[in-house]
Design goal:
Helix 1 runs antiparallel to helix 2. This protein is 26% helix and 29% strand. Strands 1-2-4-3 form a four-stranded mixed sheet, with helices on one face. It has one domain. With 85 residues, it is α+β, with helices and mostly antiparallel strands.
Length: 85
């Protein structure tokens, strides 16, 4: 008799991405759900006051109320912010 087991893999889920331009960088905000228009407006209004990539991540965490992880591959001008993923 052979013992078999299956490995359960998480299903791929859709990711919503919204891009913001800051200085010469592109901030890609990836969330498991579409952002509300109010969230997009709040981020866009406060973006000119942001002084660093880390501060933008903190801003997202405050506005969206979720954990934010920064993903980037240097020397790319694209920075990915994973929210609640």
């Amino acid at each position: 008799m052979t013992d078999t087991s299956e490995v359960a893999r998480p299903a791929a889920h859709d990711v919503s991405v919204v891009t913001f331009a800051w200085r010469d960088l592109h901030f890609h905000v990836a969330t498991p759900y579409p952002l509300l228009d109010a969230h997009v407006r709040a981020v866009a209004e406060t973006l000119p006051k942001v002084a660093s990539v880390g501060q933008f991540a903190d801003l997202l965490a405050i506005i969206l109320g979720r954990r934010v992880r920064i993903q980037t591959v240097r020397p790319s001008l694209d920075v990915r912010f994973e929210v609640g993923l």
